[in-house]
Amino acid sequence: MPGRDYVVIPNGRPYLAAEGRIEVVEVFGYVCPACARFHPLLASWIETLPRDVALRYVPAPFGADWDPYARGFYVADAMGLTTRTHDALINAIHVAHSMPGEGQSPSDEAVAKFYGRYGVDTRRFLDLMQSFATQTKVRRGMQFLVRSGVEGTPTLIVAGKYRVTGKTYQDTLRIASELVQRERASRVDIAPTALSPLTTSPPPTPTARAPQGS
């Protein structure tokens, strides 16, 4: 129900449209404890998604604890690393505590060194984190957050039109599934059997409010 389960985003549009796909965005933060708790459920849900759904991740740049990881995500995603690094970084922060978490303000060097374990040149990765192209992606992501009315993480956005506001993690995924079905029913350009799954990265309650509630 609108106003209870989700908010209709005025003039909403996808973060990165793909023809024939229904986009679901997770706005997340690597240091966000709520995102880490939500992640296993989201990862299982991803396995059930129809072939016409494009899942994308948009890291929230909510301050010094968040920004280096957001820039690192964009670089890693461009390099095709995130299928190997996304879960590993969540684990390093929230389970192994081998990477800085909330309140610890990770340095760019520490983030680049983490990704260096996956076969990339650390110096080049660091340069890309600080590049104009990466800063542009961060700004574009933040514009999407503002346009969508995102106030905390994790937040799911369906088709750029609906911001899910479920009261529990399971409720959030149920609502997202229903909104995907609604969007499919309203469109004529969807051919699920002809499409393969699409994500921009691997599988990284509601709702931690950013940054204080995460």
Give an account of the 3D structure.
- The protein has a 6-stranded mixed beta sheet. Strands 4-8 form a two-stranded antiparallel ribbon.
- Strand 5 and strand 6 (162-164) form a beta hairpin.
- The chain contains 7 helices and 8 strands.
- The chain is of the alpha/beta class.
- The protein is globular and about 50 Å long.
- It has one domain: Glutaredoxin, CATH 3.40.30.10.
- The model is unreliable at 192-214 (pLDDT under 50).
What distinguishing features does this structure have?
single chain, 214 residues, alpha/beta, Glutaredoxin, six-stranded mixed sheet, two-stranded antiparallel sheet, 7 helices, 42% helix
How do you describe this structure in short?
Helices cover 42% and strands 14% of the residues. It has helices at residues 33-46, 67-78, 82-94, 108-116, 122-129, 132-148, 169-185, and strands at 6-8, 22-28, 53-59, 152-153, 155-158, 162-164, 198-199, 208-209. It is globular and about 50 Å long.
Q: What structural class results from the helix and strand content?
A: alpha/beta
How do the strands line up in the largest sheet? Answer: 1-6-5-2-3-7
Strand segment count: 8
Overall geometry: globular
Q: Main β-sheet, in a few words?
A: 6 strands, mixed
Distance between the termini: 26 Å
Query: What level of helicity do the residues show?
Result: 40-55%
Mean pLDDT: 88
Topology:
Blueprint: E1 6-8, E2 22-28, H1 33-46, E3 53-59, H2 67-78, H3 82-94, H4 108-116, H5 122-129, H6 132-148, E4 152-153, E5 155-158, E6 162-164, H7 169-185, E7 198-199, E8 208-209
Parallel strand pairs: 2-3, 3-7
Antiparallel strand pairs: 1-6, 2-5, 4-8, 5-6
Helix pairs in contact: 2-4, 2-5, 2-6, 4-5
